[in-house]
Amino acid sequence: MKFPYSLCTLEELWHRIQADDNKAFDELYARTWKDLYIQTYSKLKIEDLAKDIIQDVFVDVWNKRAALEIHNVKAYLMQSVKFKVLDEFRKARYDFVEIDKFVEEIKASDLTDTRVTDKEFFESLHNWIDTLPHKRKEIFHLKYEEGLSNKEISMRLNISQKTVQNQVLNSSSELHRLLRRALFIYFLIFFGI
User: Disulfide-capable partner of 154 in 11, 38, 53, 161 (CB 3.0 to 4.6 Å)?
Assistant: First the structure.
């Protein structure tokens, strides 16, 4: 009697794959490749590259089957694809805007511990604010933490609105550049890439 692979859960297939069952591997591939491809293609918009990434993920899974400990097969495969896509972004030096969107998507997924991410992010932000020159730090605090307008800050600190505007613009530009770099580097470190 033929084994009913089609009735197995993905996790049951995974256990059979770990026991070197080729047919279980074929069934896993048949059930998951399309979703993985759709996800990959939606990020890269290059059909052949998306197919290559899916192939690489499955080759890795087969080659490392004895060492991998997977509890949620679908989540593991999706995360593996995301890492491979990120590698492609890095290799191709994609625009940081695309990387930012991708990082935000992964941060929003249920595969990360956002409490840790938020805590570390805000610690880094406060450390950066502490490095600002005194006047710029004061303006930044009044603008973004107290929500005052440029005119209100100007009156409170007895400086021109143009000075406030320039300091806010300088702080914002510097913070934007820093955050883009920090998010990308943090992402690489956080996910062990």
Answer: 161
Pick from 90, 39, 40: nearest CA to 193: 90
Task: Show the tokens assigned to 72.
Answer: 């949620």
Take residue 159 and report the two structure tokens written for it. Answer: 């400086």
Q: Are residue 14 and residue 60 in the same domain, yes or no? A: yes
Tokens of 16: 């059979």
Per the structure, the count of domains in the chain is: 2
pTM, 2 dp:
0.50
H-type alpha helices, the chain? 10-18, 22-44, 47-63, 73-92, 96-108, 114-131, 134-140, 150-157, 161-190
Using the structure block, give the residue that is written with the tokens 């062990």. 192
Final residue before a domain boundary, out of 30, 61, 94 = 94
Q: What is the dihedral of CA 181, 186, 191, 193, to 10 degrees?
A: 50
Range of the domain at 48: 5-94
pLDDT in tens, 56-67: 999 999 999 999
